[in-house]
Amino acid sequence: MRHMVVYRASDGRQCYHETEDLDGAVRAVEELRNTQNVSDLGIFSLQSVPIEFRPYYRVEVVPEPAPVSPFDAAPWPEVGQTTQVLEPVVEAVEPVEPVPPYEQPDQQPAASTRFGLFSRG
């Protein structure tokens, strides 16, 4: 089983030393204590922890934009402020001649067309 030696170096930073077994961790602690005078240390056993990944869905409500009122589009004039009043534009329209009514032709259909317009008679 793997082991880890955790210690604080002389400059104050956190350090880690991983070993294959407990004997290697004990030798690392002895070396740190005798050569670097490290007293703040510990040995931890490392074992695999089974994990599993699962899908996770997060639902967020999106705020709807506030509806824009036609009254909000243009600001109202301040009290005492004059506004320009637009006059309606009237264009002159030329008179149009009326279309004559549809007149019936004076010709009578021939006698050979008794089967209709599209028949092979």
Description:
It is built from 2 helices and 3 strands. By secondary structure, it is of the alpha+beta class. It has a domain at 2-46. The protein has a 3-stranded antiparallel sheet with strand order 2-1-3, covered by helices on one side. The longest helix is centred in the first third of the chain and has 15 residues, at 22-36. The protein is elongated, with a radius of gyration of 50 Å. 2% of the residues are buried.
Briefly summarize what is shown:
By secondary structure, the chain is of the alpha+beta class. 16% of the residues lie in helices and 16% in strands. The mean pLDDT is 80.
Give the count of helical stretches: 2
Structural class based on helices, strands and sheet pairing: alpha+beta
Let me know the largest β-sheet. 3 strands, antiparallel
Using the alpha-carbon principal axes, give the shape.
elongated
Distance between the amino and carboxyl termini: 107 Å
Low-confidence stretches: none
Helix and strand element order: EEHEH
Strands of the largest sheet, in order across it? 2-1-3
Proportion of residues in helical segments: 10-25%
Overall pLDDT, averaged? Answer: 80
DSSP, total strands: 3
- Mind telling me the C-alpha Rg? 50 Å
User: Beta-strand percentage?
Assistant: 15-25%
